[in-house]
Design a protein that fits this description.
alpha/beta, Rossmann fold, GMP Synthetase, Chain A, domain 3, 7-stranded mixed sheet, 6-stranded mixed sheet, 13 helices, 35% helix
Length: 453
């Protein structure tokens, strides 16, 4: 499905000075704690994308880094650029203002910038906790607003009126059409430690600098969704905050970012584990891979910054060995070496994603499975002894991830080495590249009946 064929979901950017309540409103409208909320200015560094549904209509919300006209730090300058990019991208803009602080010079400057975009703008004066406080909004008419909406993002006061006005200027996409499409669009979580190049990879695929790329580790604090069209196929990429060892996470902000990264695994079909080719596989990488497997996600391993490696053949052998030794539970995952910064060796990724997703969702009929099982048992019969093991049949009980059940004698108790043999045969007969396969052994009905006699 190409982008031109898809349902157009309008984009609504929430912009404003730092700490005026943009993330609180974003969380209120999307119904989940997607954006970081903290009293520290500049907490929402990147554009954070979320879905809002109201009266059976759907919009994509963009929560931006706060606007500062004269930032002192380089990352604030980058946040200012991100806000400008979001405003250019949006179909409508919610301009958040602070009813407690009152009108400020940065508000005037941002209003001037908004006028240049010629987009519908809804002026929302936040921290107005009820009708008695509506007088806080009056001074903001000086910004040129025809109508002001006094709201409390924290307590929902006035939010319904704001959304009714949004429908008037930019109606949302029909909810039923959106839900139908979302069942077909794969979601890809980009995981890894800080500063390994996750955002650079997504920017290379997008062809734009949607995600902050900064040499300060941890620049991407939130999980950020981006839709990418690769070869006519739509994917949603989730760029996560870098995962650090717990000992290094001493601020509640960093702890919450790691929580968001882990939660991204619950929202995705495929995890891309990005590592620095110079550093190889470290303990934290192994833990991330283990989490992905535990969650039943398809997995692709990517070693980035390949352009910085001199002896590539030797380093590839070292990395393959490191993966085999440090990530044995992820032996099914294909390995790519890339340079996201230089956009090199990315050509294999779209095809590999297609293949892995197909494997992840593939359903194999019981007849086909049992014809294969017959050959496996002839090639290597089950162990014998005082109570010979019998494998009666197997069936597929689920997909995404694939799950199969072998029905056996001995109450489903099978030696570990024979379990490994059957799993290896399953993988070699049917292509499960990049996909964890969950295998269960159960007593057959016949065996249970005999055991009960």
């Amino acid at each position: 499905m190409t982008k031109s064929q898809s349902t157009k979901i309008p984009l609504v950017a929430i912009v404003g000075r730092p700490n005026v309540g943009k993330s609180t409103l974003f969380n209120r409208l999307t119904g989940e704690r997607r954006a970081l909320v903290d009293d520290q200015p500049g907490v929402t560094r990147d554009r954070n994308y979320g879905r809002m549904t109201y009266l059976n209509q759907v919009w994509t919300l963009i929560d931006t880094g706060g606007f500062e006209p004269d930032p002192d730090e380089s990352i604030l300058e980058a946040m200012k650029t991100q806000s400008a990019l979001a405003m250019a991208e949006a179909d409508a803009i919610i301009f958040m203002l602070d009813g407690r602080d009152g009108l400020t010079p940065p508000d005037h400057e941002l209003a001037d910038i908004l006028r240049r975009y010629r987009k519908p703008v809804l002026f929302a004066v936040n921290k107005v906790d009820g009708p008695r406080h509506e007088d806080k909004t009056a001074e903001f008419y000086a910004l040129g607003a025809e109508k002001l909406f006094g709201i409390s993002a924290e307590h929902s006061y006035g939010v319904g009126d704001l959304l009714d006005a949004l429908i008037e200027v930019v109606p949302g996409a029909p909810e039923e059409e959106v839900e139908l499409e979302e069942t077909t669009i794969p979601r890809i979580a980009v995981l890894g430690r800080p500063n390994v190049g996750k955002s650079t990879l997504i920017n290379a695929l997008l062809g734009e600098e949607r995600h902050l790329v900064h040499d300060q580790p941890g620049t991407t604090r939130d999980a950020v969704d981006s839709e990418v069209n690769l070869g006519g196929r739509r994917f949603v990429f989730i760029d996560t905050a870098g995962m650090r060892k717990k000992a290094k996470i001493d601020e509640r902000l960093e702890r919450f970012s790691v929580m968001r990264s882990l939660r991204s695994l619950g929202r995705c079909h495929v995890a891309l584990l990005v590592m620095d080719a110079r550093e190889g596989v470290v303990d934290q990488d192994a833990r991330i891979a283990e989490l992905a497997v535990e969650e039943g996600r398809a997995l692709i391993i990517i070693f980035n910054k390949w352009d910085l490696i001199e002896d590539k053949e030797k380093r590839r052998q070292e990395l393959d060995q490191a993966v085999a030794e440090r990530l044995p539970h992820a032996a099914f995952a294909p390995v790519l070496t890339i340079s996201a910064l230089e956009k090199k060796h990315l050509g294999r990724l779209p095809g590999l994603l297609e293949k892995v997703i197909e494997n992840y969702r593939r359903r194999i009929g019981t007849g086909e499975l049992n014809r294969a099982l017959e050959g496996w048992l002839k090639q290597n019969p089950p162990p014998t002894g005082r109570s010979p093991l019998k494998i009666y049949y197997l069936t597929m009980t689920g997909v995404a991830p694939p799950s199969v059940v072998f029905f056996t004698s001995r109450g489903g108790k099978v030696p570990d080495n024979y379990k490994r043999y059957l799993l290896n045969q399953l993988r070699s007969t049917f292509d499960f590249t990049g996909v964890p396969v969950r295998v269960y052994f159960r007593a057959s009905g016949k065996d249970r009946h005999q055991a009960g006699r």
